[in-house]
Amino acid sequence: MSKLIDALSRLGEQAPKPMGFGPASRSRRPSILLVGVIGLPALARKRKAVDAEVDAALVSVDEMDESALDRAIGRTGGLPWGVRAPSVTREGAAMLAEKGCDFVVFEPECADASLLAQERLGKVVALGQDLDRDRAAAIGGLPIDAALVSAELGDSMTVADLLGAARARAWLGIPVLMSATREVQPEELAPLRDAGVSALLIDVADGRRVERMREAIESLPPRKKGRRLSYGALIPRADAGQGRGADTPPDDEDEDWE
Fold first, then answer.
1. What residue ranges define each of the domains in the chain, with the CATH number in brackets?
2. Which of 85, 95, 130, 190 is the most buried (most CB within 10 A)?
3. The whole model's pTM is what?
């Protein structure tokens, strides 16, 4: 299973307690993830591994250059890494899976359908502004693990921005990642998280910004009771009845762990 998708499914859970007789840990897994974005040429030229404190690396690929990809793989620093490309062919998907790629962000119009059969890859569909209930229902019937939405944010985040993220989360019933047209500010993290955003894309080139965002995530208060995300679909899905559905009451919400 994709490490990124697994991490998205466990957001906010208590981290494993240390073994032995040391002090008990009150730490928990982050409630929102950072996915560091870097271009393939830049990563292939790096002399050392990606050192930004992100949860996964997303390599932006204009053209599937296998030799450059081979050089880049060793510079992800052991992070789960994924690829976003303008198109993903049958051969490209198989090659990525063979090289240990963890997830693929794809445009539905430009990705070969065989990508969805690659069980070793997490499948993240990139969505435009045209999401409606019918399209969401269609996505829900396919083996797609998460969605990437683009947010056109103004100078300040509005309630309408949050409603867009919450709608995508509710209609799709899968984790939602977000990329924004401007830098998301630390004080905007909690509203986005509570609206259903599970991960943010961030440029790894700005190490100080990544550090500030990481510190802000670690200082986020737990979600209020009743706001734990459930990834059972809120619309009819092919796997309806096998997991949590819309009528299942939510679990108790995050509270401080003793």
1. 3-10+26-218 (3.20.20.70)
2. 85
3. 0.81
